[in-house]
Amino acid sequence: MTAAAGIILLLIALTAFYVSAEYGAVGVRRSRLRRMCEDGHTTAARLLPIVENPQRLNRYIASSQVGITVSGMVLGAYAQAVIAPRLVPPVAAGWPTLSPETAESIATTSILLALTMLSVVLGEIVPKTVALRYPTEVALLTTRPMLWSGRAFAWFIVIIDRSAGALRRLLRMPPATHRHVHSPEEIALLIAESRNGGLLEPQEQVRLHRALRLGLRDARQLMVPRARLAAIEVTTPLRDVFRVVATSPYSRLPVFRGTPDDVVGIVHTKDVVTHFVQRGRNGTLAALVRPILRVPDVIPADRLLGFLRERRSHQALVVDSGNAVIGLITLEDVLGELLGSVPDEFKTQRLLPLRLSNGRVRLPGDLPLERARVWVEGVWPVEGLTVGEFILREIGHLPETGDKLEASGLAVEVESVENGKVSSVIVTPPRLEEDEESQ
């Protein structure tokens, strides 16, 4: 019986090996493997070409699945042929009225159920958990045996792969791969967890979050509205243009003919100053006007960034569906949304409230206090303030990034301070504080 138990444990261990190899290969980070290859790690150098090539990774995973299937089938067959007959006499002795066939069926079913539960726990759940927790270590540890298994199962994998391909073509299904991909929401959660684990600074998390959300913003949301623009009529005398340029906070001013809807171009303050130095007040504004691009108001910010770069332009007019000018957008507007480093009095913070994986919540500084109450379970008062203004009133001074304080009984960590304002904070809700105190 000892030898039989040893064989059973060996077959379960083989299943566990192939399960851990599969999850390790899928979960390993290619960026980390590249760094290890640069450091001279030979096993990483063997594994990296596999995980970077979808076809090779598919064959690698197929080797794991074949190994899992074969070890499971051998385990079931061995248990039925060797272990089950040994249990028939005790079952028959316990129930004398049973026929030999019934006693054999009960013994076989009992041993298969017991081995199935043992195989699921030790052969699948435990190795999968370990592989997901330590994907790089597990993937590297199983690489060489898996390469050997791949050679041994090569002929069988070819048959399976071709059969699966024929079935996919019959059903008109696209080919599947085992690439490790994440949705934007999952990436945002990973960034938040990295920040909580100390791998990212608060400012880095904010910038990465903005980069993920860049494609969700359009030109209408980022532009300076037409009502805020200091536009100039094309027939304006140069002496008046000099006065407008001197008092305007902008370096580029739209030029229109007749009405602001008929924009003919844009004038750079640098060109106006250069003209004044070289020619004085002689000339016309029309000679200084440069052409300007037009973009629809619904163009996403990431596409707009590429559009401006391709045409080597720093600005564009934003038009609505009727081709009416509704604003002006510049390259600095888009980069400011991405990096948060270009101050603009016409923009507001566009971070959204987010519940982090540890139960705490991130609140934008410009979030109205009455909306923030939902996230803090009604602890904060209902007042006509934003979260940032409420924090400033509570502590009486402008905090610094990373400061930890208390606001109306709740623990608050200042995540970001920009342009003299609190732009985002991390708040511990009341229920989470009670759980921490009870532990």
Structure in words:
By secondary structure, this protein is α+β, with helices and mostly antiparallel strands. It folds into four domains: 2-171, no CATH class; 184-216, no CATH class; 219-339, CBS-domain, CATH 3.10.580; 354-438, 2-Layer Sandwich (Uridine Diphospho-n-acetylenolpyruvylglucosamine Reductase, domain 3). Helices cover 57% and strands 13% of the residues. Strands 8-9-12-11-10 form a five-stranded antiparallel beta sheet, sandwiched between helices. Strands 1-7-6-5 form a four-stranded mixed beta sheet. Helix 3 crosses helix 4, helix 3 (42-52) crosses helix 6 (135-152) and helix 4 (54-94) crosses helix 6 (135-152). The longest helix is centred in the first third of the chain and has 41 residues, at 54-94. The protein is elongated. It starts with a helix and ends with a helix. Residues 341-350 have low confidence and may be disordered.
Question: Can you summarize this structure?
Answer:
With 439 residues, this protein is α+β, with helices and mostly antiparallel strands. The protein has four domains: 2-171, no CATH class; 184-216, no CATH class; 219-339, CBS-domain; 354-438, Uridine Diphospho-n-acetylenolpyruvylglucosamine Reductase, domain 3 (2-Layer Sandwich).
Key attributes of the depicted protein:
13% strand; 439 residues; four-stranded mixed β-sheet; 57% helix; elongated; CBS-domain; alpha+beta; five-stranded antiparallel β-sheet
